[in-house]
Amino acid sequence: MAVAYYIKAEQEIAELDLSVDGKSIPRADPDQLVLLFRKLQVRPLMDFYSADPEDIADLLDSADDEVSVLPDEEWFSAAEGFHSVDVLLTYLREHDGELERQQEIIDDLESYQRILKALAERNVRWHLSIDL
Q1: In Å, what is the CA distance from 117 to each residue of 58, 80, 96, 98?
Q2: CB atoms within 10 A of CB 41
Q3: pLDDT tens per residue across span 73-108
Q4: Which of 19, 63, 76, 103 has the highest CB neighbour number within 10 Å of its CB?
Q5: Has residue 7 got a pLDDT over 60?
Q6: pLDDT category, 109, cuts 50, 70, 90?
Q7: Rounded-to-integer distance, Cα 127 and Cα 132, Å
Q8: Would you say 108 and 23 are in contact if contact means Cβ atoms under 8 Å apart?
Q9: Short-list 14, 15, 27, 7, CA closest to 113
């Protein structure tokens, strides 16, 4: 089973499809991605990662009292996430061959971009989540 990154919205929007493939970003070289984000002077995608502490506890099979030591779920501005994705997407479209499986990464970024734009227009916060 492949790891996938997906967008979790703070509130549900009935007409917005949040589904993405999301498997290309975890397969990419993380150091190379961080360097690209830094070069482009935007916040790296993984900076937007968060999770519900209860979900983490379930994954780790932790006791309920251990949930209290896990960090709270954090939410981010969709406009800021959109900006990071948009800048990276623009760069990758203009610089072919920058990353392995670049077209797959572009496809996932386009999905993120579509969702983040819709969330930003509605002032709905988000975070990046991981499906294992």
Answers
A1: 31, 10, 24, 25
A2: 7
A3: 999 999 999 999 999 999 999 999 999 999 999 999
A4: 76
A5: yes
A6: very high
A7: 16
A8: yes
A9: 7
